[in-house]
Write a structure and sequence with these properties.
Elements (H helix, E strand, L loop, with lengths): L7 E2 L7 E2 L10 E2 L31 E3 L11 E3 L19 E7 L5 E6 L7 E5 L5 E4 L14 E7 L5 E7 L12 E3 L7 E2 L12 E7 L5 E10 L2 E9 L7 E4 L14 E7 L5 E6 L10 E4 L7 E2 L17 E5 L4 E3 L2 E10 L5 E8 L7 E5 L3 E6 L5 E6 L6 E6 L7 E6 L5 E3 L5 E7 L2 E7 L7 E3 L2 E2 L2
Length: 460
Amino acid sequence: MTRQHWFALALLALGLTACAPAGAPAPTFTLAPTLTRPADTAAPPPAATTPARPATSTPAPTETSTPEGAGGGEAIVAATVAPEGPAIAPLTAGQPITVTALEMVSATAGWAVAESDAEADSHLLTTRDGGATWRDATPPQPRDATLALGAGITFAALDARTAWATFYDKTAGPLSVTPFIWRTTDGGQTWLASAPLDVTDAEFYSPSDLVFVDANSGWLLVHVGAGMMHDYVMLFVTRDAGLSWERVVDPFDTTENSLWQSCGKTGVDFADAQTGWVTGDCGGVQPGAPYLFKTTDGGRTWAPVELPPPADQLDLYQIDTNACGTQAPLYLKGADIVLAVTCQDYNSGQALAFLYRSADGGATWAVERLAGGFTTAAFLDPETGWILTASPDLTESTLAQTVDGGQSLTDVKQLSWTGPLDFVDAQTGWAVAQAGEARALVKTTDGGRTWQVITPQVAP
């Protein structure tokens, strides 16, 4: 498969205001090539640490603490990966890029995955000025020229200095190397590779979610096989800041305390070192309440959580033609969780959406109906959030805000794009906006009432 052309979409087409000096030409969207991405996919080789990115020397085996629940009391000695070969070349100053994923940790600092038209591999970047300029902080991952669409990146950022990343094959091809996780504690100046992940029996390596609750405890959800409405996943946990990873969910485990093999897994998130959630969508194949599982032992065992139907539609989850699924948690902290349930009525073609909110770890739920066409949302706390809905063809969208957990919504802005939202406070937010084949990084400083296009620049 070849990469398609890059396109430019005029600013006017998206109804956005550009961040440019008076008299300057209006910036345009730089389009990412249309990539046929399976759920997010496989990984290349590993490397050790170095700011300049040539392959590093083999690090000595690293002693790591025993993961909780692993048994024993002796330290585990985990040999970290030492990959070989030329690393992915850094971006050059001024090189045009398209941001495809974003995680801001403050009003000025954040991390992003970006692509350029010069190569297929994705890059990991950092910003300290709210997204105007970016520094290439890509780990020294050896480049794999055999990957048809290049290497993708799944990452997690704890703060401006601490982040983790793993690479994968965008085509979800067969595994050619053993995957691993990179870690930085200095903002991407240097990176350390983890011990190799145990991906025995994986058909491919598609890491969709990497989450950390503190500097030591993290989880990686990897899709490793699919077929007949099954989504086979592995879940890895680290208790030593990412140096070693233990596989705690096996894709072929059919015991009652494991995740169901059926249904697509849409996300994983943890409230603390022990309590976590996995969401999913069964596409109408699995009867009953939407897919939702909870763990209270760090991911070793899981139990289904049955969501109550909306009070005005008590038979919603019992009707065979209603396909309902849970989306990845929108907010999770302590006993508070907010998530969205989306449904498609195959008889009428109607799309439904509901906001579920719990303050007691899922024992009880408040349910609010959302407008049809739900696409994404971002919440600062259980009460305050922004919800984006769109027309069926995605050409028109509405951004609404709630300050009471979805009980009431106030329309904030009519837009002509969709895309993931990322707010760090009540006024400051970003989105990776997409309109047709065009993508752009956009920012608001007034709670979503106005949005400006940011043309990201690669700093020297």
